[in-house]
């Protein structure tokens, strides 16, 4: 009878011990899982900090090549070259002229201004996007400028890379919108772009009102067309650098470190 009476007490004691052991084991597993997740988060934050501080500038080969071509064409410029490369209203069916006019400039001031602007504007773009994307924007802006001139100012001849420069300038807007949190000196970039844009607008307005847009003649239609194409194409062509951030940790981690972290998380 005494044994039968103690059975419920013994059973209750064993149940409490079993539940306590399960709780302790569950707490250990949760702690291990949390430590594994914390290790992953800490390492990802470390890799992200390395990525932000890492020098990512690349040589902007495309814009360097274009600057060299434009300088070379200016040095060897003559009437024959202009007759074959400049965009002219009586040669609209010679389709290479829709691009080659960008290689020619009217004087040294025109050349230096376009070269300096396009190099400064394209340096960050080509380093952070890619050569072919910047090339696409630049060439598309130039072609759109010649097309706008053909249909809106059909009596004008055209030379200079201003339409391509405007395309690069306006393509900074989609680039900033897509990658704003990841870019260095982002507020300084916005300020610089606003200064460039507003100063050019003021100069063009002054030249039209005071000099009546003569000597030299500025083709505003080509500038506007290049700017619009750069803005639109930038949203379609430029990529967000955040998409590649998930692969950064895999590239930075060694295989042994990846295995160690995975074992910690699965334990």
Structure described in brief:
This protein is mainly alpha-helical.
Task: Please tell me about this protein's structure.
This protein is mainly α. The protein has eleven helices and no strands. Helix 1 runs antiparallel to helix 11 and helix 6 crosses helix 7 (162-179). It is elongated and about 85 Å long.
The low-pLDDT segments are 1-6, 245-250, 252-267
Supply the helix-strand structural class.
Answer: mainly alpha
Q: What's the total number of strands?
A: 0
**What Rg do the Cα atoms give?**
32 Å
Largest β-sheet summary: none
Element string (H = helix, E = strand): HHHHHHHHHHH
Average pLDDT: 80
Overall, the morphology is elongated
Helix content: over 70%
Beta content: under 5%
- Give me the number of helical elements: 11
Distance between the termini: 48 Å
Furnish the topology, listing elements before pairings:
Blueprint: H1 2-53, H2 61-75, H3 79-85, H4 97-100, H5 108-128, H6 131-152, H7 162-179, H8 186-210, H9 220-237, H10 245-252, H11 255-266
Helix pairs in contact: 1-10, 1-11, 2-5, 5-6, 5-7, 6-7, 6-9, 7-9
List its traits.
single chain; 267 residues; mainly alpha; 11 helices; 76% helix; elongated; disordered N terminus; disordered C terminus
């Amino acid at each position: 009878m005494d044994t039968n009476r103690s059975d419920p007490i013994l059973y209750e004691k064993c149940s409490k011990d079993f539940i306590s052991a399960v709780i302790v084991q569950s707490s250990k597993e949760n702690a291990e899982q949390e430590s594994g997740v914390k290790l992953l988060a800490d390492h990802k934050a470390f890799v992200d900090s390395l990525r932000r501080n890492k020098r990512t500038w690349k040589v902007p080969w495309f814009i360097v090549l274009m600057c060299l071509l434009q300088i070379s064409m200016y040095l060897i410029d003559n009437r024959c070259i202009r007759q074959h490369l400049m965009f002219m209203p009586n040669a609209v069916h010679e389709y290479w002229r829709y691009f080659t006019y960008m290689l020619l400039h009217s004087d040294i001031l025109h050349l230096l201004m376009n070269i300096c602007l396009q190099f400064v504007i394209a340096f960050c773009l080509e380093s952070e996007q890619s050569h072919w994307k910047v090339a696409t924007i630049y060439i598309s802006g130039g072609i759109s400028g010649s097309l706008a001139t053909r249909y809106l100012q059909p009596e004008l001849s055209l030379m200079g890379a201003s339409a391509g420069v405007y395309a690069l300038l306006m393509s900074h807007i989609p680039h900033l919108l897509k990658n704003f949190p990841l870019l260095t000196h982002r507020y300084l970039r916005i300020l610089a772009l606003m200064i460039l844009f507003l100063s050019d607008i003021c100069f063009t307005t002054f030249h039209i009102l005071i000099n009546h847009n003569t000597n030299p003649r500025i083709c505003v239609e080509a500038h506007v067309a290049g700017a619009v194409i750069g803005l639109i194409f930038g949203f379609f062509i430029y990529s967000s650098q955040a998409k590649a951030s998930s692969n950064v940790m895999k590239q930075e981690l060694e295989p042994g470190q990846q295995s160690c972290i995975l074992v910690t998380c699965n334990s």
